[in-house]
Amino acid sequence: QVQLQESGPGLVKPSQTLSLTCTVSGGSITGNYYYWMWIRQPPGKGLEWMGAILGSGSTYYTPSLKSRTSISRDTSKNRFTLQLRSVTPEDTAVYYCANGMDWGQGTQVTVSS
Q1: Shortest CA distance to 20 belongs to which of 91, 112, 102, 76?
Q2: pLDDT (tens digit, 0 to 9) for every residue of the chain, 113 residues total?
Q3: How far apart are the C-alpha atoms of 68 and 29, rounded to whole Å?
Q4: Less crowded by CB within 10 Å, the N or C end of the chain?
């Protein structure tokens, strides 16, 4: 079974860059079977798909966040990273990494000065 674990700071100041890492075990992020995704859920709202990186290294982003989002990977450590630039309090959410079948437990990120 594939396991995913998010890590990163729980508090980010407005205008800074949010960086989260998802470490994967039980499966290779370079395989072609999965999309490796970032999804978030703001308080009181539904899930929002942010973007994904494929086994090939290709990336896809939701249009509303594309200008501020980057997803990259470190294949030597079997992990992938989300960067969200110029954050505002509206980016406060629980952030999840997933592969379409398996999910991490999620990590709370608060944007506040």
Answers
A1: 91
A2: 899 999 999 999 999 999 999 999 999 999 877 899 999 999 999 999 999 999 999 999 999 999 999 999 999 999 999 999 999 999 999 999 999 899 999 999 999 99
A3: 23
A4: N
pLDDT of 83 reads 98
Which tokens hold the place of 18?
């949010």
Strand partners, 12: 111
Placement of tokens 């978030």 in the chain: 40
Rounded CA-CA distance 110/88 in Å is 9
Q: Measure the CA–CA gap between 41 and 46, rounded to whole angstroms.
A: 6
Task: Report the C-alpha gap between 54 and 42 in whole angstroms.
Answer: 25
Token readout for 103 is: 């999910």
